[in-house]
Amino acid sequence: MYAYDEIDRTLVNERVSEFRDQVKRRLSGELTEDEFKILRLQNGVYLQLHAYMFRVAIPYGTLAANQLRALAHVARKYDRGYGHFTTRQNIQFNWIKLAELPDALEDLAKVGIHAMQTSGNNMRNVTSDQWAGVAPGEIEDPRIWSELIRQHTTLHPEFSFLPRKFKIAITASDHDRAAIKIHDIGLKLIKNEKGETGFEVLVGGGLGRTPFIGKTIKHFVHGRDILSYIEAILRVYNQYGRRDNIYKARIKILVHELGIEKFSREVEEEWQHIRNSSLQIDDEVIEDIRSRFTYPAYEKLPHMPDELRQAAADADFEAWRKNSVAPHKVQGYAIVTISLKPIGKPPGDATADQMDALADLADKYSFGEIRVGHEQNLALPHVAKRDLPALWKALDKLGLATPNVNLITDIIACPGLDYCSLANARSIPIAQELTRRFADHELANLIGRLHINISGCINACGHHHVGHIGILGVEKNGEEVYQITIGGRADEGAALGNLIGPGVKFDEVADVIEDVVEAYLALRERPEELFIDTVKRLGVEPFKERVYATR
Amino acid sequence: MTSPLEQKKIKIAGPSVVTANRTWDGIVVYRTAAKSWSADLSEAAIVRDPDEAKSLLAESVADDVGAIGPYIAPVQVGADGKIEPGNLREQIRRTGVTIGQPAQA
Prior knowledge:
A: alpha+beta, 6-stranded mixed β-sheet, 21 strands, globular, B: alpha+beta, 2 helices
């Protein structure tokens, strides 16, 4: 966990007071909606179909148990008893009243949570690997650097009125769980040949209307120079990024239009002006941030405790363990992913009761810590292996032990037309129907790792471009129509999916996905060949043929 | 279902209303003939040509404290005068999400 200092606490509290005054002036008519809109957006408040939506930041996906209880409290007191975890380590509440928002913010501020920069054309919540600090083999805890960037960019005037929103993600492992290649800036912690810590820097990734995979702009930037290098990128973006056309305003368009070589030269020139300035980070600064991250006092525990050995006889437990439990860097401990994808339910939703109960389980089994991943699942990062059977039983009672992590029913979906004012088509009912079709665990296991991503419009909040199977809802002649892509991925091998053919109607989507999966099962060379690898080997054609031959 | 955020011109193909979200709590409201807002679609003022629509929208936009984001939305008016939303988006805004929500804690 990270402990905020007095400066952070003051900043968060002052922000609440400021927003309270702004809301008061808006409700009295002193501020018009045009004047107020940018202020509410800077505090995570959108207007959606049915009500205001309130987006709260969970920096680098780390929550303390008391913070999760505060989110449950907000869900219960100010909303309708649930929240929705997003693809960028935020939580959204869908039914907030503007008049009550300052109180909700004040309640969250008491536990160090805020909604600053969760919307608007500024630097958004810096995200990271939800297994940060506990994943075996990582270079070091990437949250230290996420926190450094958070501190530097929060309310920074130069980054508060960018041409468009700006997102940074950081990973420190070879396997990318933070989807850095689809971010405006992606940072991968690495060591150079001298053993110094630094970053491979990628730029210009993003999805939406014009998707791009991020490109490496510099193979190694020393850790002490990372703020100046990021600032150099942002200065070039601020100078050349388009403000006249919202569809061309993201940095990915600038990088694409200039070309990575020219963009890189511009950044390099800017960087030389500022790299030896006050932006160079002293070791003490990093050490101070590092010291504020506290880690559990792990016990010395056996690799295979008796409790785990005995529980292995239970097939249901084993099914859950196999896809929910991952190795931990400390012997005797494990990382437990908690699926927020129960069969037939909206992906990423959790009730206030579930959040409270999970906070209790985190206290009991995970040193009071919870993580949030971009796949819209949660994780308990420090579970003693001997406690896994007891934890599984407790999660099962809460409806949180669906054994489908990374399987076909572990679907990422945006809120879609059920909630979102930008959406053209529904996402959640498609996800619900697909989870019912593939509810049989043996079937899902037979299919193996397969990620479905669903977006209800071209803005791609469900990251459909990088789903192994991507589903994009559009509107055609007043009807919901869905375009299907295959072959996308969001990890270190990030790629954009390819369209398999004409769009299909709402009622046909699940049938089409079943056809795609049946084609895969027939085409794969062996059971271990993942869907994504079969698509890579054979391309779109055999799948297209299977889907459209009879339609 | 094209988002009203993309509405460029006022074009109406049939009976329409002006809808928005109430400022203090965000709920869906409709502009009434009495120059007020109502959460009940049956109380909405119906417009049938662009000039009427333009006028109702202008009046709605002017009431910036009462409701935000007003736009023109299609409706269907039955033989009995009953007003129903004219597309799926407006149906969802009127009746709520189509998916069921987690039980209120």
